[in-house]
Amino acid sequence: LNTPMGQTMSQHAKHFGQVKLPGKLYELGGYPGIVVAQSLSGQVVCDLYGFDSQSDLLQQLDRYEEVGSDFPEPQEYVRKRLKLNFQGRHLSAWVYLYNRPTDNRIRIASGDYLAFQRGGL
């Protein structure tokens, strides 16, 4: 990722690969928003990272995504722990989910934000 937080992630977290979540992906004006639910059709492509639990990286991510009691409600994102299937293994991971109405947002049908940025749908 070519953002300051992307640089921080590449320096302080291990990228394990991509995982797909059941749900929908939206364009929010230069960045993505995910809405997930088992009942939703579609898949969203996400990058899976791991880092030391003693790290303050999760707190940095919360500040970056403006999640937590320091930010006014309704917050744009909420952080939730979801169960994932990654390379045949079941695990749980924190995911930042879009927390506002999607009525006037563009849905990215492919579920892949990077492909969408490159001109794909």
Please describe the structure with a list of short key phrases separated by commas or semicolons.
globular, 6 strands, 121 residues, 4-stranded antiparallel β-sheet, 3 helices, 40% strand, alpha+beta
Describe this structure in words.
- A hairpin with a 2-residue loop joins strand 4 and strand 5.
- The chain is of the alpha+beta class and about 120 residues long.
- It is built from 3 helices and 6 strands; from the N terminus they run H-E-E-E-H-E-E-E-H.
- It starts with a helix and ends with a helix.
- The strands form 2 sheets. Strands 1, 2, 3 and 6 form a 4-stranded antiparallel beta sheet that branches. Strands 4-5 form a two-stranded antiparallel sheet.
- It is globular and about 40 Å long.
What is the secondary structure topology, with strand pairs?
Blueprint: H1 4-12, E1 14-27, E2 32-36, E3 43-50, H2 57-65, E4 77-86, E5 89-98, E6 106-107, H3 113-117
Antiparallel strand pairs: 1-2, 1-3, 1-6, 4-5
Tell me briefly what this model is.
By secondary structure, the protein is α+β, with helices and mostly antiparallel strands.
- The number of strands is 6
Shape: globular
Question: Averaged pLDDT, please?
Answer: 92
Task: Please summarize the sheet with the most strands.
Answer: 4 strands, antiparallel
Amount of beta strand = 35-45%
